[in-house]
Amino acid sequence: MKRLSAGLLMSLVAITAVAQQNKDNNTLLWKISGNGLDKPSYLFGTIHMLCKEDAFLSNNLVSAIEKADRVYLELDMDNLFEMFGAMTKMKMNNDTTLADLLTAEEYKRVKEHFESKKTMLPFSMLETYKPLLASSLLMEGGIGCDEQVAMEQLIMEEAKKNGKRIEGLETMAYQMSVFDSIPYKMQAQELLKSISIGDKDTDGDKEFSEMMKAYKDQDLEKLGDMITKSDAGMMQYQDVLLNNRNRNWVEKLKILLKEKSLVIAVGAGHLPGETGVINLLRKAGYKVTPVENKSNKVTEI
C-alpha cells in the first residue's frame, strides 16, 4: 500500500512507455510550444513533501516562473477561504470512523501506530478522515528527516517574489470528493496494510524509498513503472484518481495556453504515460520537450 500512498502523494499514473525521455536526460521540467502559441509555457512535476536538503528550484524553473504570466498548481493553495472550507470534505460521510470499518484488533493496531508517529493532526481527528488521506499523512511523517518542504510552497514563494498570480487547475473540494468514489472499507484495509508496527525494514518502506529516489533522480520512467506494480484492487480506481483528472486539466489548458504563458506544476506522476499530461498535450498538437532541471546550470529556455 505504501506504493499506492506514495502514488497518491505524487499523483502517479500507469505507464506503458516513456519514449519522450532517456536515462541520461531525466528531468521534471518540460517546455510546451507550437500549436499556435506566441510564447512557450512550462510543465513541472512536483512531490508534496521532500527533505529540506533535497528541495530546490532549478535556475531554469526560476527563469520560467520569472518569464511566465501566471502560475498554475493543482490547487490554488493561496486561497485560504477555499482551503479551510474544504477541511470538512476530508471527513468520511455519515460520521463514519475507522472503528466502524475495522475489527477491534485492527483498530487498536492502527491507533497505536498513529500515536507512535509524528503527525500534524491527532488520531482523534484523523480517524474520521478518509483513510487514504490518513495514510498519506503517515507517509509524509516517514520521509526520514526533521525538516520537510513542500515543493508547491517553494514555487508559490518564487511566484509571489516575481508578482505572478497563482491559480488552481481544480478545487480542493473536488479532490476530496474523488476519495468518496472508493469504498471506505477498502480504504481502511489499504491503510491497515500500509502500517507495520515496530518493523521499519518492510517491503513497503523499501519501495517508498525507491520511489523517493526516483523522484530525486527525476526519473519519470521509473516512477511510472513502479505504480504499475501497485495493489491490483486499488488500480481499478486509477481513472477516477488520476486519468480523468489529467484529461480535465488538458482540456482546460487548451484554453489557458492560448491566452497566457504559464508555469504548470502538478504531481510528477501526472506527467508520463499514455494518459499522462505530456502525451495528452502532444496529442492535442503541442510540442512538449525536456528542459534541464539542475540547480547549478542554466540553459536557454
List keywords for this structure.
alpha/beta, globular, disordered N terminus, 301 residues
Structure description:
By secondary structure, this protein is α/β, with parallel strands linked by helices. The protein has one domain (2-291). It is 47% helix and 11% strand. It has helices at residues 2-10, 59-67, 80-85, 98-101, 104-116, 123-126, 131-141, 151-161, 172-178, 184-194, 203-216, 220-227, 232-235, 238-259, 277-283, and strands at 29-33, 41-46, 50-51, 70-73, 148-149, 165-168, 262-267, 287-291. The chain has a 6-stranded mixed beta sheet with strand order 6-4-7-2-1-8, with helices on both faces. The protein has a two-stranded antiparallel ribbon with strand order 3-5. β1 and β2 (41-46) form a beta hairpin. α1 packs across α7 and α7 (131-141) runs parallel beside α10 (184-194). The chain starts with a helix and ends in a 10-residue tail after the last strand.
* Quantity of strands, as a count: 8
Radius of gyration: 19 Å
Strand content: 5-15%
Strand arrangement within the widest β-sheet reads: 6-4-7-2-1-8
Low-confidence stretches: 1-22
Mean pLDDT comes to 81
Distance between the termini: 39 Å
The main pleated sheet reads as: 6 strands, mixed
Q: What number of structural domains do the residues give?
A: 1
Order of helices and strands: HEEEHEHHHHHEHEHHHHHHEHE
Share of residues in helices: 40-55%
Q: What is the overall shape? A: globular
**Count of helical stretches:** 15
Q: What class, by secondary structure content? A: alpha/beta
